[in-house]
Automatic annotation (TrEMBL):
Ranges for domain Gfo/Idh/MocA-like oxidoreductase N-terminal: 2-118
Superkingdom field: Bacteria
Protein name: Gfo/Idh/MocA family oxidoreductase
Gene3D superfamilies on file: Dihydrodipicolinate Reductase, domain 2, NAD(P)-binding Rossmann-like Domain
Record domain GFO/IDH/MocA-like oxidoreductase: where: 156-217
Species whose genome carries this gene: Myroides pelagicus
GO molecular function: nucleotide binding
Length: 321
């Protein structure tokens, strides 16, 4: 079993601690939190071992799970990597693209593995339809959340939209050609609502909307491609695949047939895959373990996290244009 330690024992850090403690693949050694009062409370309530310094924790483990505020990701990860430890970084990978690129270089220098916590890649609904997505040409995404002060220190693009940017980049295998965007600050100093239009060199267009001041939560994406309409609801963990094929000579009583102006007939049918429910956070942590042990590429690499961060900054930069 790989020994793992967690940096940061806030809301998400406590979730990671609980799941790592339950995991049969990791040995949870303990955690470090810079706020002693919080560290003592977590230790007393859950029994996890607190460490006095980041360095003490890093030296005691094989894998460092970094669940700290984004501003500290780079410094924490750099210390861990230079100590020869593998790193799991919550999203976004770092504050700047330059920091992310430096971490990539350091993992190669010290021969360690890294993974970024883009958890929607492990959402059971996305896993179920991922293989059905082939060369999408239009993507529509809405990620709306009720207001929560946690996370408002960064624009909604880095707080929420980046989930969808990573998922989109994982299925659109083409460089970004052009980005246009608008963002509005309502309650925070940084934009709370954002919309971006991302055009790819292969002709695909993604229209992405995020808000953290909505009346209800929504996390939906629709993919349109030549032969199919595919929708995924990350929140409800459901998906739908609607496809077309040549209409049969003799349609059945319940076949849904459409005919265009040229007289071409198509049959509409559902091809919904089976969804296997899972714990996405546990899966992302345990697949990272497997990548380290088997010496294979992590599912969400540091390069993937950097690509999502780069696009996020392109969108933020487009706000002022």
């Amino acid at each position: 079993m790989l020994k793992v330690g967690v940096l940061g024992a806030g809301h998400l850090g406590k979730i990671h601690l609980r799941l790592l403690n339950q995991s049969e693949k990791y040995n949870l050694v303990g955690f470090y939190d810079p706020f002693k009062e919080n560290a003592d409370k977590v230790a007393a309530e859950f029994g996890y071992q607190p460490f006095d310094t980041i360095e003490d924790l890093i030296n005691a483990v094989d894998v460092v799970d970094i669940v700290t505020p984004t501003l500290s990701h780079f410094d924490c990860a750099k210390k861990a990597i230079e100590a020869g430890k593998h790193v799991f970084l919550e999203k976004p990978i770092t504050t700047t693209v330059e920091e992310a690129e430096e971490l990539i270089a350091l993992t190669k220098k010290y021969n360690v593995y890294g993974q970024v916590g883009h958890v929607e890649r492990f959402n059971p609904a996305f896993l179920a339809i991922q293989s059905k997505i082939e060369n999408p040409m239009f993507i529509e995404t809405h990620r709306l959340a009720e207001f929560n002060p946690r996370g408002t220190d960064v624009p909604v693009v880095l707080d929420l939209m980046i989930h969808d940017l990573d998922a989109i980049l994982s299925v659109v295998k083409s460089p970004v050609k052009h980005v246009s965007a608008s963002g509005v600050s309502i309650l925070s100093e940084s934009p709370d609502i954002a919309n971006a239009r991302v055009e790819f060199e292969n002709g695909c267009v993604a229209n992405i909307t995020s808000s953290r001041i909505s009346m209800k939560n929504m996390r939906k994406t629709r993919f349109f491609q030549r032969d199919a309409y595919i929708s995924v609801d990350y929140l409800e963990k459901t998906c739908e695949v609607v496809k077309m094929k040549e209409a049969p000579e003799v349609p059945g009583d319940f076949d849904l047939i459409f005919q265009n102006a040229e007289g071409v007939k198509k049959q509409i049918y559902y091809d919904n895959p089976e969804i296997h429910q899972n714990n996405a956070i546990l899966d992302e942590l345990e697949t990272f373990h497997d990548a380290i042990i088997n010496k294979t590429t992590p599912i969400v690499t540091l390069e993937d996290g950097t690509a999502a961060l780069r696009l996020a900054h392109q969108i933020i930069d487009a706000f002022d244009k």
